[in-house]
Amino acid sequence: MRWIALRVWLLCWLMLVWILLWGDVSAANIVSGLAVASVITLLLPLPAVPVEGRVHPLSLLRLIIQVTYYLALSSVQVAWLAIRPGPPPVNAVLRVHLGLKSDLVLALAVNIFNLIPGSIVLEIDQVRRMLYMHVIDVGSERTLNRFYRQVAVVERLLVAAFERDEDWRPAAKAERA
Hints:
mainly alpha; three-stranded antiparallel sheet; 6 helices
């Protein structure tokens, strides 16, 4: 049943993208969007991604609110760094270890960190769960600690939203391939 719901969701999403690309909601665009979505999902199927935890809506809401706050705060900080007088900020490549279990949640974490202005993930060590990130403005102990604290908060919220120990059921090795 879940597989069918996911396929229907994917078809609807692709059909919506098709309609948005054409810029007009009409019967022809709906039918052609459904046809294109069907061809795409049949000829180019996505690999199965194991879902090993459970989504907790309230924790997910807290994650969204916190990431939105970080997006706004970091945007202001980067804008200030661009216009402030003085020498350019000190940049660095920092290594961060994450305790995330799921590859899917690790990919979500990488996307979150890439969206937040002032940092970008350069390399992912999937086996050791290490991220190498280029970070702007790490010239003081305070800014360095703020960065590591921000990463820890996002990791904690991701675990609360998707990887709680009581809900965790690792996928079999055959499903991961």
